[in-house]
Design brief:
CATH topology: Deoxyuridine 5'-Triphosphate Nucleotidohydrolase, Chain A
CATH class: Mainly Beta
Number of helices: 4
CATH architecture: Distorted Sandwich
Strand content: 25-35%
Structural class: alpha+beta
Helix content: 10-25%
Amino acid sequence: MPPPDTSQLLTFRCPKELEGLLPPPIPAAQGLPDWLKTMPQEVSSEIMGGQNDTVKRCPPFVDAMTSGFLIPLICDIKFENGEFTWDNDLPPCGTINFPRSPLGLHDSTQLTGTPFFESDRFVIKFHNLWTIEAPEGYSLLFTHPVNRFDLPFTTLTGWVDCDNYRDGWIHFPARWRDTNFSGVLPKGTPVAQCFPVKREKWSLRTAVFTEEETQRTHDLIGLMSRETGVYRRRFRV
């Protein structure tokens, strides 16, 4: 029997003491927010005159949210009056050291000169206790969960070569955006979304339309103005 194909397999590992205690990473399609599930596909619009599709019918919007994998918050975190608290009862570890708190921080001076810098505010860091191994030649792009502006934080974007760096933790710096938030972020809340990206060298060029390309664009724009769902039917993979 041939060995299984692992060319498109991400492997998430955790210390054995934490098996069954940590919420696992999940395919992003399994972690869609309730607001996307319950929102209508079309609404009446006085401005447009008649019915108008919502973003729920926009394949690029939905496909971005359902691609890749979501990394979960490891326990409930309460934020109230500018203070974070949590109760994270992890067992002692006899094999390897790992953070026992769900949060760390970055000194604000590390962001000096960036739009994120605020002298009186730390940047939090969500701790992730899963190592991640990608196939050879692949890196992972980590970013804020796509289109999740309902979350009170914004995770910063980073790129990690997880085919080589596969035995260490990857934590996620984030800016706590909603200072008026008061409540609990539940265990399992997505704190980052990751996308496997094959490392390749690309270049670019610019060009003007040929007559044939002009006609193709003219025909496509006309078709899309007359019919709905053209991209979904003809171009979406």
